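Sample 3 of the quickstart, ligand flavin mononucleotide:
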Amino acid sequence: MSANRSVNFTGIEFENPFLLSSAPPTESESNILRAFEAGWGGVVTKTIGLHPVANVVGAKAKFLRTSPDDAHVSMKKRSGAALHSSWNWELISDKVLDWWLPRIGRIKQAFPDRALIASIMAGSGSDKELRNWQRLARECQDAGADGLELNFSCPHMDRRDMGSNIGKDEGLCSVVTEAVKEVAKVPVWCKLTPTTAEIEIEAGACFRGGADAIASSNTFPSLPPIDLDSLEFEINVDGLVSTGGLGGPAILPLSLAKMAQMTRAFPDRSFSGIGGISNFGQALSYILLGCGTVQVCTAAMLDQAVGPNVIRRLLTGLDAFLERHAADGWTRVEDFRGIRRDRVVAQSEIRRPDASEYHSGFETAEGYAGADG
Ligand SMILES: Cc1cc2nc3c(=O)[nH]c(=O)nc-3n(C[C@H](O)[C@H](O)[C@H](O)COP(=O)(O)O)c2cc1C
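Result:
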């Protein structure tokens, strides 16, 4: 049997499981068209809202690099330093809904077989805000979007009823999802913030509201480093900074842990993995935990804005992996999805050394006194 890259995720057919996440790579029509030409299986648009957006002065996103000799992490470019993470305080799309709608239609006309998911966001503090969610959902799906991703995850919103503040409140997660599901004719994914202790609680609330899938992670709240000479934050406006979002390689292990919490709690549900993916090995970790698709932002931003080399690496990596495992009978992602999900267990379930070798953690050789000492 020949290898098959395609996946059906929440009822949507994807040519391959690799998507661009909602972020600068999907902020314009030209970027999305270039992304599809490069081979991405789908895109999630930059988040579309109804509220006016004014970003901070200056750069909205920067990159942190680390040097191998002293592990110094800084935004300053240094030769030999490797990418550590992205850092951003960019808000949702500053383009209005009416700007997006004809573009969604044109993109779908140009690439009818590629999936376009519209990321949307409104408030949650009143019935009027719930109706805003419904308006965004209706208009994006009528324009041709194949699915909707509800942004319950943006970490830079001051409003208590928006972004990650929704994702931190299981009641709001459920109510907003239900409101969107009332009008949605296409699948609805919820993108959750990774900043709660037990993300499976918010995931469960979204599923109760009718969500078809959960996507995670958005960026993790973080501060930029302070410059040793000027004693100023490496990114600031008039000396001031707020927490921004950390993405890229640094968040891969953190995001995998959040994903495992959810896939273990809901093994039969659909999940889209995001965080620190730039090659197939990292995507594979999410798939082995149970994700049916994965999404990429930071690596694509650094590769001609839409990641043509990143998607090439992901596709060749998937093909090579399937070829290597042909003898196992694996011909598509579904054949190995989730096969390491059950390996993540409580600490108490991990084997300890035999009693004869284990001294309750007190090793006399390390200088601890013996039990009778
Ligand atoms: C500059 C920037 C802007 C972003 N804007 C959005 C957004 O509008 N909506 C959203 O859901 N996520 C947004 N994200 C989060 C990304 O979609 C993604 O979840 C995050 O960067 C982690 O993936 P990565 O490690 O591949 O970067 C943004 C990320 C960055 C770096």
